[in-house]
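Team,

Forwarding the record for the chain on the shared tracking sheet. I've put the sequence and predicted structure together so nobody has to dig through attachments.
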Amino acid sequence: MKTLKGLFQVKGTYIGIAAAILFQVIFFSVWLTAYHDVEKRAGNLSIGLVNEDANKDMQFAEQLKQAVPFRIKEYSDLEQAAGELNERAVHMIIQIPADFSTSLQAGKTPSIDYWINQATASATKTMMLQTAQEVSRELNQQFFSIQKTAMSSGITQAIAQMPLDPPIAHLIGNETVSAIGSLDSEPAETVVHKTNNVEEFSANLVPLMVIISSFVGAMVMIMQINEAATSIRSLHPKWSLFWSRQIINLAVAFLLPLLTISLMKLFGINSQESFAMIYLFQSVLFLAFLTFAQVFVFLFGNLGMVFNILALSLQLVTSGVLVSRELLSNSYQEAAAFLPATYGADGYFAIIFGGGSGILTESIRPLLIITVLAFGLAAGVTALKRDGEKAVITEKIIESL
């Protein structure tokens, strides 16, 4: 009992209990508000339509708008649509082949081709596949109805023009009903093409896994280095400690990718980019996580852990790995632009699945901006501190509470 009382006399015990409570509160609050009414924002997703069929009387675009809750973007050719699919400007392409109507009228089985980009959020891929099946079902019902009506009308008109005895007319009528009944209820075939596809299921987990491991690792590392720096701050000038911490950050950021790449190879995860590009991207990503996490620790000391827990939850929700960012509310979409995990997810989709060749380069630029801004904030906080003493800014914040 005396030992138990001793533990509760130590500040760290309360911080540990508070952390367990805050993890629950923050994760529930962020995740459940972020994903609330996601299905009602399905209209933010886009589907591309490439209608190559010469028969413009068949209003495929109008039929699609009635069948799905998504935006419909029409393209003149598949190549242009495929480019936007790679860039995730659209989430699926529906291609109507040039011979669709003529094949349908000739009693053949034409195909409706669906192109789904696998380098996107897991929920979105599933949603698009289900949509492809639903669209095919809806269109087939309409085509089947058109075929029945056309055949029935044609035969009825032909019989009416013939001078037939009632028994013969009745016999032909029965044969007509039988012929209509033999029509294929699914006159069009569904063909799904998965672009940027990776067969290994575990590869789908890599973007999320890298984000979690990198940011949590950065968060814990920053906290521990802060503890070490606090213990020796009376012995060293503040700027000497600051630059020493940044050197450690840089060293770890440029050594860790070697482990990341090695683990990917060890577990058979193939990549679509060169070793040098993956190494550079992971280095910049981890450095961005480190500098981002250290800002809160520089500002609030151990209390900065609370903000890092919040940042972790926000980044997992808004990264676009589980659910496309377009399905989130506007506030979460706006927050995503300021969080490094957003660009980390985009980059690792390109690394694992492929896609646009410039995605990695485009993702590195905002990561560097976040790194520079976070570094500048940490340096500004350091400038307000006195050597060997707690940060003046932290004391003022605590006093004002």
